[in-house]
């Protein structure tokens, strides 16, 4: 490990690439050390992967917000100045005419309270804002309808004013409270309205540290069978880095393998993978497995793991899980050496004495010393298999009724 000016910047082969990306440093020293360890200078920080490719850059977004806030200040100043102007014909309270400057300053401060709240509350949750908006809208509508329904029985103006005030206060509160508590189920009431955060593409795949360390997810990606966006939570990345920094050699090797797999996935041209940033206090007091389950629940995604316990916990909470071991079991061959099957010899093989038959799914079965049995059904014992991108081929030899089998050539002979 080579430290460069700061303990946060280090090159540690073979996962120097990840460390360089996270540091976001492209100094000549780092570039030279990266070349020495076959690690190209960082061009795309891992943190930058947390934003979609079509997202507004943070600098441009901050500038846009600044322009909007300044425009709001100027609009407020102009409107308030027009309101307190003695020459204006607008009806105003007497206090405004007597103290125009004090009124202007007071109204400007009051209008900028909204700007201050917007600045200090940095992270807004769209589902909460939507729930408040729809709750207020529905509550006001219900209160208006209730007032109209009670209009015939409200004899005096005092009773009417009391009913209007109470319904206008109570019904919006009840609607907002109800929607905040049931915002995840609101889509069942209005099918095309959902407060949950949507992610572009299909359901995102939330990767666990065990899936990165296992490495088979990279092989699955190479087959182009997965087109969903992939998320690596920030706490999972930290967990893998902690494993890679372990004093135990076996754990350190596993951690570095996980970082290598993440680097391979990031460089894959057909993979949409990003590091998902979470707030420090968002999952406070939870284990990594609990954080993964909660994050997948929030995003409506699926957990990719190799951990049996995480698989069970997520399944119990209704979170879809892709277990790499289950995927491997589903793709394993139907037959292994030693299995017996019954086939019909259709034709002779290209090599001497070979007979060729087919299974129901079209798999070719090459049987040794069976060329003279064309047109007959025979029992075959599997001796070997050949699996490639072109398909699968099974080699075997005939099982004779007496239990003995004829000598057969080497199964490496193909037809």
Structure notes:
The chain has helices spanning 16-23, 28-36, 58-84, 94-98, 100-120, 126-150, 157-181, 209-214, 216-222, 234-244, 249-267, 288-299, 308-316, 324-331; strands at residues 2-4, 6-11, 205-207, 230-233, 273-276, 302-305, 321-323, 340-348, 355-358, 364-368, 377-388, 391-398. It is of the alpha/beta class and 415 residues long. Helix 3 (58-84) packs antiparallel against helix 5, helix 6 packs antiparallel against helix 7 (157-181) and helix 10 crosses helix 11. The strands form 3 sheets. The chain has a 5-stranded parallel β-sheet. The protein contains 14 helices and 12 strands.
Indicate the low-confidence ranges by residue numbers: 1-55, 188-199, 403-415
Question: What is the beta-strand fraction?
Answer: 15-25%
Helix fraction? Answer: 40-55%
Beta-strand segment tally: 12
Number of helices: 14
What integer is the average pLDDT? 76
The end-to-end distance, rounded to whole angstroms, is: 54 Å
**Main β-sheet, spatial strand arrangement:** 5-4-3-6-7
Computed over alpha carbons, the radius of gyration is 34 Å
The oligomeric state is: single chain
Shape: elongated
- Largest sheet composition: 5 strands, parallel
Structure class: alpha/beta
SSE order, as H and E?
Answer: EEHHHHHHHEHHEHHEHEHEHEEEEE
Short description:
Helix content is 46%, strand content 16%. It has helices at 16-23, 28-36, 58-84, 94-98, 100-120, 126-150, 157-181, 209-214, 216-222, 234-244, 249-267, 288-299, 308-316, 324-331; strands at 2-4, 6-11, 205-207, 230-233, 273-276, 302-305, 321-323, 340-348, 355-358, 364-368, 377-388, 391-398. Helix 6 packs antiparallel against helix 7 (157-181) and helix 10 packs across helix 11.
């Amino acid at each position: 490990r080579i430290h460069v000016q700061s303990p946060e910047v280090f090159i540690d082969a073979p996962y120097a690439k990840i460390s360089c990306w996270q540091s976001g440093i492209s100094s000549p020293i780092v570039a030279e050390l990266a070349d020495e360890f076959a690690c190209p200078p960082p061009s795309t920080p891992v943190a930058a992967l947390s934003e979609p490719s079509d997202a507004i850059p943070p600098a441009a977004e901050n500038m846009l917000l600044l322009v909007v806030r300044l425009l709001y200040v100027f609009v407020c100043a102009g409107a308030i100045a027009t309101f307190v102007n003695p020459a204006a014909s607008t009806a105003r309270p007497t206090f405004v005419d007597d103290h125009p400057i004090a009124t202007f300053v007071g109204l400007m401060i009051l209008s900028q309270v909204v700007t201050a709240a917007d600045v200090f509350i940095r992270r807004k949750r769209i589902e909460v804002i939507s729930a408040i908006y729809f709750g207020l809208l529905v509550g006001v509508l219900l209160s208006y309808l209730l007032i109209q329904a009670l209009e015939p029985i409200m004899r005096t103006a005092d009773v009417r004013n009391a009913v209007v005030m109470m319904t206008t206060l109570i019904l919006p509160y009840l609607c907002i409270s109800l929607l905040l508590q049931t915002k995840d189920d609101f889509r069942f009431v209005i099918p095309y309205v959902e407060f949950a955060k949507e992610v572009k593409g299909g359901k995102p795949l939330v990767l666990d540290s065990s899936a990165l360390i296992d490495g088979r997810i990279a092989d699955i990606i190479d087959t182009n069978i997965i087109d969903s966006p992939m998320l690596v939570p920030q706490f999972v990345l930290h967990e893998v880095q902690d494993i890679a920094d372990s004093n135990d050699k076996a754990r350190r090797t596993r951690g570095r393998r996980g970082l290598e797999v993440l680097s391979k996935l990031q460089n894959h041209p057909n993979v949409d993978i990003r590091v998902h940033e979470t707030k420090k206090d968002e999952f406070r007091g939870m284990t990594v497995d609990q954080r993964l389950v909660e994050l997948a629940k929030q995003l409506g995604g699926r957990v990719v793991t190799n951990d049996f316990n995480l698989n069970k916990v997520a399944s119990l909470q209704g979170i879809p899980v892709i277990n790499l071991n289950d995927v491997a079991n589903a793709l394993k061959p139907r037959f292994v050496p030693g299995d017996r099957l019954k086939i019909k010899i259709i034709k002779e093989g290209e090599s001497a004495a070979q007979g060729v038959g087919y299974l129901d799914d079209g798999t070719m079965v090459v049987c040794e010393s069976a060329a003279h049995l064309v047109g007959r059904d025979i029992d075959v014992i599997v001796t070997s298999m050949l699996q490639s991108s072109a398909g699968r081929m099974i080699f075997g030899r005939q099982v004779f009724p007496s239990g003995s089998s004829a000598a057969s050539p080497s199964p490496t002979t193909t037809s």
